[in-house]
Amino acid sequence: MDAPKVMFEIGEEAGVTRSDLVYAEIRRAIVQLRLRPGDRLSEAEVARQLGVSRQPVREAFIKLSQADLVAVLPQRGTLVRLISREDVENAHFVREAIEVAAVRKAALNTDAAAIAGLREIIAEQARTPREDHIAFMRHDESFHESIARIAGTSRAWRVLEGLKAQLDRVRFLAIDEITSSDAIVAEHHAIIDALEVGAPQRAEDAMRAHMSEILASLPTLAATYADLFST
Q1: For residue 71, how many other CB atoms are within 10 A of its CB?
Q2: Of 95-109, 133-147, 162-176, which range is least confident?
């Protein structure tokens, strides 16, 4: 299989190494399915596109391998790993535990300004063109991260970010395939409504219901996209 034609791009960020920037960009491409499971990655081509030497790309590949996103195979090069259902289920378990606890805490720690900020994020998400899944998911991440910040659990969110790449690949597959973007926006509004009135149990129930759909849809997605999942 030839290396996929994916355009990579990185900028500069103070205090961040070149290999970390390369890692973050390739990880985004994998999560957003710009790089599909089974695609071959060329160290030389990625380095050329990013305008860097091969060393930071090689270091990024090692980190991606440690995160189970790529496989570095002797004589075959580097391949994007297939999606593991077991990894998805484990990531969902951790994410649900953290986010349900965070939204409950946020319901006891919110104010009008925080609610207004969440409403604006969801308004932007609702205005996103249906086919622009990358922008839609960016607003989705901003919404959930904002709840963690309101709850005072931003560090837990950062830990979660490092664990949920496999789950996020499935979430990209599911948008408008299994769960409509309109339904996701409506579920977000239900969470905000519970936060606004300071109802922790209602907020927890709304978040748990919101997060349950992706796991319920996993068998259907695995059957529909059998070539993207490991057996």
Answers
A1: 15
A2: 162-176
Local structure of residue 33 (DSSP, 8 states): T
Whole-angstrom Cα distance, residue 60 to residue 58? Answer: 5
Give me the residues paired with residue 70 across strands.
80
Cα angle at 52 between 50 and 57, to 5 degrees?
85
| CATH classification (class only), 18-80 | mainly alpha
Check if the beta carbon of residue 70 is closer than 8 Å to that of residue 59. Answer: no
- Give strand ranges (E) for the chain: 40-41, 70-73, 77-80
Cβ atoms within 10 Å of 9's Cβ, excluding its own: 8
Q: Residue 155 is inside which H or E element, if any?
A: helix 154-161
Strand 70-73 relative to strand 77-80, pairing? antiparallel
Q: Is the pLDDT of residue 128 over 50?
A: yes
pTM of the predicted model over 0.90: no
Question: Cα dihedral angle (131, 134, 137, 143), rounded to 10 degrees?
Answer: -120
Is 174 in contact with 221 (CB distance < 8 Å)?
yes
Range 73-95 average pLDDT: 90
- The reply to whether 18-80 and 85-228 are identical in fold is no
Contact status, residue 99 vs residue 144, Cβ threshold 8 Å: yes
Specify which residues 71 forms β-bridges with. 79
**Using an 8 Å Cβ cutoff, are 172 and 57 in contact?**
no
pLDDT at 130 over 90: no
User: Any idea where the domains of the chain sit in the sequence?
Assistant: 18-80, 85-228
Please state which CATH class domain 85-228 belongs to.
Answer: mainly alpha
